[in-house]
Specification:
Blueprint: E1 2-8, E2 11-16, E3 26-35, H1 41-45, E4 63-70, E5 82-85, E6 94-98, E7 102-104, H2 116-129, E8 136-140, H3 144-155, E9 159-164, H4 167-175, E10 180-183, H5 187-197, E11 203-208, H6 213-222, E12 223-231, H7 244-250, E13 253-256, H8 262-278, E14 289-292, H9 296-305, E15 313-316
Parallel strand pairs: 8-9, 8-11, 9-10, 11-12, 12-13, 14-15
Antiparallel strand pairs: 1-2, 3-4, 3-6, 3-15, 4-5, 5-7
Cofactor: Zn(2+)
Keywords: Metal-binding, Oxidoreductase, Zinc
Domain Enoyl reductase (ER): 10-315
């Protein structure tokens, strides 16, 4: 099979390697595609702790495709099933992993891309945000994740205030149901605009979906007394400081909405399948760029640089 191998910072080779074989309890998936995740960008940049080369297909964890082989002791998944796979070497033609880490895709999703991991991540964040009809919800950062959360919150009956630096992202937020959009330019101006929009009450729910210090600072300021601040951004580039005085005074509930239990991830993917098939969610307009596997480097660089018309890249096999 063909597999991408990251050989150094910003360098990738497409190599021909043996197809992996499923062990007991595992399945092999012939991949149709894999989403490109922003979490790939730190290892792609080559920090000191990163070891090169990666395993064949390494970094790819948003794959979908068709089961083509099963190991012993596998039940509930069969050859020919089209699935979303929470495996971790999916920048390749094939990947293997536990049968418990795949979710079957119904016929309604035939021919549709389905990067289950980020969709499931959004569903889990939404669940932990406890968003209800009538609430004011600020979403800071409208990339793929923020746009999905905008749609879910608006569909739940909340009034969504979307905050992002790119005009293209704010347009996407409006299409996904945001009632208000604010350019992410000036810290104090944003606070005053949200104060005006909420009659001084601020937001019962605030979701920080950027992963940087300033948006985290801003999120605390926008959260109402006894509100819930949900940290969905990927904060992996260093320590953070928080305004504990503010958090304490307002009595905020602060939720780190990242999951590590594979079962919870898979539950989120199942919820995403239901949301898409029921019509609650249509993520297809957010898949703005597609690349063949041999152009994975371009996909990663575009995910890093985020040009005006970019929301999410998919790699197709």
């Amino acid at each position: 099979m063909q597999a991408a191998v990251v050989t150094g910072p910003g360098r990738v080779e497409i190599q021909t390697v043996a197809r992996p074989l499923p062990a007991a309890g595992q399945v092999r998936v012939r991949l149709e595609g894999c989403g490109v995740c922003a979490s790939n960008l730190t290892p792609w940049a080559g920090p000191e702790w990163m070891e090169f080369p990666t395993a064949p297909g390494g970094l790819g964890h948003e794959g979908w495709g068709v089961v083509d082989a099963v190991g012993d002791d596998v039940a509930g998944v069969a050859v020919g099933d089209r699935v979303s796979a929470l495996f971790y070497n999916s920048y390749a033609g094939y990947d293997v992993g536990p049968a418990s880490s795949v979710v079957r895709l119904p016929a309604e999703l035939d021919l549709q891309a389905f990067p289950g991991e980020p969709l499931g991540c959004a569903m889990n964040i939404f669940r932990r945000s406890d968003i209800r009809a009538g609430q004011s919800v600020a979403i800071i950062g409208v990339g793929f994740l923020g746009a999905i959360l905008t749609r879910l919150a608006a569909e739940a009956g909340a009034r969504v205030i979307a905050i992002s630096r790119r005009d293209y992202a704010l347009q996407a937020a409006r299409r996904m149901g945001a009632a208000e959009t604010i350019p992410m330019l000036d810290h104090y101006q944003i606070i005053e605009q949200v104060r005006e929009l909420t009659g001084g009450a601020m937001c019962e729910r605030v979701i920080e979906a950027v992963g940087k210090q300033w948006p985290l600072d801003l999120a605390g300021e926008l959260t109402a007394e006894r509100g819930r601040l949900v940290i969905a951004g990927y904060h992996q580039d260093g320590p953070r400081q928080v305004n504990m005085q503010l958090w304490n005074w307002r009595g905020l509930d602060v939720v780190n909405a990242h999951e590590r239990d594979p079962k919870v991830y898979v539950d989120g993917i199942r919820a995403a399948v239901e949301a898409v098939t029921s019509g609650r969610l249509d993520a297809s307009p957010l898949y703005t760029h597609r690349f063949p596997l041999h152009r994975l480097d371009e996909a990663l660089n575009m995910t890093r640089d985020r040009p005006d018309d970019f929301m999410k890249a998919l790699v197709t096999m």
